[in-house]
Amino acid sequence: MKNYQLINSLEKLESLFDLSYKIPNREEFSKYIFQHPLRFTPYLVEQIKCSPAVAKQYIPDPKELDKQGLEKTFTGIIGTGIPGLERMYLDRVILMPSSQCFAYCRFCFRKNYSHDANNGDYGSPQNNFKKALEYIGNDSRIKEVLITGGDPLMFPGKVIELILKLRTIAHLTGIRIGTRIFTSDPELINEDWIRPFTVLNTISTLPIPAPVSISPHINHPDELTPQSIRALLLCTQNRIPLYNQTVLLKGINDDPELLIQLFRQLRQLGIEPYRVYHADPLQGSEHFRTSLKEFMTIKREMRAKASGRIVPSFIMDTRIGKVELGADAEIIKREGNTVWIKTPYTREIYQAVNPEWKLPEFCQLSDNGQIIVPYEDATKKEDFSRIKISLIT
After folding, report:
1. What residue spans define the domains of the chain?
2. How confident is the model at residue 117 (pLDDT cuts 50, 70, 90)?
3. Could you tell me the pTM of the whole model?
4. Superfamily of domain 5-381
């Protein structure tokens, strides 16, 4: 694979970067890094050196050893029985060709999934794709497929092959790809790379085949470099719709003015600001999390100061599905740091997909049958570590 650097020990990390923070337990932290390794592209190494906001997203902090939080965010997933195919909703599924990424975000909600990030995958080799395609093809309620992982665009040829097979399924109306290629290795994107996606979205037949859109994950204006802007424009100017997703990260982008700046720049590039996510209550991620109050305050300030065209939805990942407070969900009570959220989901919706689905023990039902789910608010209020990174040459 291209000269990506895999860092799976503290010693390797320290040989590349001069870390400013103190490590109280080197042996434990080194084992943790082996379990949750880092990977850097040459491009990303340079961005980490230049931007603290980028560095904090990829350089591990000893605070990751904190076990507070969930091992996995989503536990209400409807079983498909097919490795690499996940389903939580009636009309869409997730297909994961690989667990490998250009770089591993330290706040990733798939961080604790059972896979070998050093070199493995989710147990979804090609022979499982046939079963996944049959599953999707046999359920006309499925209208969209999100191809993610891992980063599927590490293997664009395989993704194109998969999309061509998906487009033979008549009831699909959309295919989406989740990626961080634009912030990790944008120099890969050129006219040859773009051409197959452009051809896929050049519609000349009826019925219209499922269009393909790509979702970048851009969290901070520092990630909009000349290289990434060139790659983004190459897509938007060649019939590839882009919609951005952002995670609100404490000490990185939890500032309404900064987010307004980011989303205005994205709109200029022809990219839809789609969603801002509250950082998940995941083990090792507490230091990334704002409180829900801060999360909603930022949303309100943006609504007051900026056009609705650049203010995305503010979303939370509950253990049974995504919700938006004040829109399709509401907090009905608080017990310490636990808030109870009434979701739009019902038991019947999940059982319509899988009759054997049972309401998780941690959930409750409202009087009208909506599922009420607990969600852990952020608890620690200290500032994020002010990591100062310099490249060792």
Report:
1. 5-381
2. very low
3. 0.92
4. Aldolase class I (3.20.20.70)
